[in-house]
Amino acid sequence: MSVNVRIPTILRTYTGGQAEVTAEGGTLGEVIADLEANHTGIAARVLDDQGKLRRFVNVYVNDDDVRFEQGLETATPDGAGVSIIPAVAGGC
Amino acid sequence: MRKMRRKGLASMAAQTHTVASTTADTAVTAATAGTGSAAPVDLGPAAALSCRECGHQVPLGPVFACEECFGPLEIAYDFAVHTVADTEELRKRIEAGPANIWRYAPLLPVPADVATKPNINPGWTHLVKADNLARELGVDAGKLFIKDDSGNPTHSFKDRVVAQAIEAARAFGFTTLSCSSTGNLAGAVGAAAARAGFRSCVFIPHDLEQGKVVMAAVYGGELVGIEGNYDDVNRFCSELIGDPAGEGWGFVNVNLRPYYAEGSKTLAYEICEQLGWQLPDQLVVPIASGSQLTKIDKGLQELIKLGLVEDKPYKIFGAQAEGCSPVSVAFKAGHDVVRPQKPNTIAKSLAIGNPADGPYVLDIARRTGGAVEDVNDEQVVDAIRLLARTEGIFAETAGGVTVGVTKKLIESGLLDPTLTTVVLNTGDGLKTLDAVADIGLTATIRPSLESFRDAGLV
């Protein structure tokens, strides 16, 4: 299953400057593992030492914040859009 | 009408696109310059950006998240170089400064001559001794104060943060300002952009209070309603910033956030100076993203380190509305991370379901011995009317939240009514009239004394 992943500016050093890449996987966890296989180093930026999403990373699958869904177990259907976004934006 | 606005926006985006490449270049130069090469960015005592999570440092530039761990970048200062070493000298300089936030310029990421530049010059708002309210709440006379930030140029505390962002935007060469907003910030950005000569295009949830929409639109910038809640707007802006359409824009609370957020420190500075250079014992601060509370704590810590106030314990309490209480829920559950919520409250300026600085609020409330509490919409309205009735201050819903939470904290014994307490009112009730719309005329009479007597008012 192929999904489109939007890459935030601070991770584009791993994707050769690309803002969007495709990845394979039926869950978010699998998608991140596939990203790592093709863009070595990216997983350690998104996941902490225990392999969980870092607390200042927001990930959306088709507009849904995965923290409202099943986190890394969230399903990523074929053609889904995945966005990785720094959480420290906004508000005051 | 709608169509015209959209067309206007499209042409503006096209223009901005042209600007983008030069702005990006400027930004890169600025960032490199921070390391010590030619033409350094002059933001006063600001020396670098430092990650609050892992300590990783990068040069000053329009970046906001740590490239190592996604943590928030904060300003690292070199006060020794830019401020006078002697505490008394610094105190005198501040006291002789203008009656706005620029009296604290030596402690902010702004150039030393900031007061001479076109900006909205907010701050130095009233610290009101609230003895009538104190009596109602059972607080000792002379111990309760309202820091009334409705007195700022666009009637909310947001002018403080936007004023910082304006200086950073100038330093990095941006020409268009933007933000995601629950309303107050949009107005503050519109006004400051107009004064300082920037173009503005700001984004808000489409269903805000009319007062906030008009207030944001009147300054002539572009105002875009997004079909979604604040968290959707914020996410949109975070994506726009990584897209060529938004690359050349200064988003005050995204890529300029490290500079912008420092504006909230001025609340801490003013409160202490207005108390005669003393720390309050207890502060009650509203929580939206949690940035304000976090920076108030940072401001207090700086005053202690600089010797401007005596080092003594203080407690910081956070206030939320029950309908958007992710931080309060996490505090009570003993968690150190915040589970996002879908907001549903009349306190729209605090309706951030996924608060960026939530984890830091939890740390600070626990470290200082404070707490995080919430009140429901009915209690918010009651508190707005209580504050108006006792002190003549008409607060927006966020002020109802802080006053309501103060009452609740006193009743539960968490807040000590014998100690000096400062409660923040961050906005003006005229912006959220709907919250108290069920009140109005006491009587309608003919213009005669007889009619007045008949109404039973004498």
What does this structure look like?
The complex is a heterodimer of chains A (92) and B (458). Chain A has one domain (2-86): Beta-grasp domain (Ubiquitin-like (UB roll)). Chain A contains two helices and five strands. Chain A is α+β, with helices and mostly antiparallel strands and 92 residues long. Chain B is an alpha/beta fold. Chain B folds into two domains: 2-119 and 156-260, Rossmann fold, CATH 3.40.50.1100; 127-155 and 264-436, Rossmann fold, CATH 3.40.50.1100. Chain B contains 16 helices and 13 strands. Chain B has helices at residues 2-33, 79-82, 87-95, 131-137, 158-172, 184-196, 210-217, 230-241, 257-261, 265-274, 291-305, 326-333, 358-368, 377-391, 397-411, 449-454; strands at 46-51, 57-58, 73-77, 127-129, 144-148, 176-180, 199-205, 222-226, 250-251, 282-286, 315-321, 372-375, 421-425. In chain B, helix 7 (210-217) links the parallel strand 7 and strand 8. In chain B, helix 6 packs parallel to helix 7 (210-217), helix 11 crosses helix 13 and helix 12 packs across helix 13.
**Oligomer, anyone?**
heterodimer
**Which runs of chain A of at least 5 residues are low in confidence (pLDDT < 50)?**
none
Rg of chain B, Å, rounded: 22 Å
Round the mean pLDDT of chain B to the nearest integer and report it.
Answer: 90
At CATH level 2, the architecture of the largest domain in chain B is 3-Layer(aba) Sandwich
**Helix share, percent of chain A:** 10-25%
Taken together, the total number of domains of chain A comes to: 1
Q: Would you tell me which CATH topology of the largest domain in chain B applies?
A: Rossmann fold
Element-level helix/strand string of chain A: EEHHEEE
CATH superfamily of chain A: Beta-grasp domain
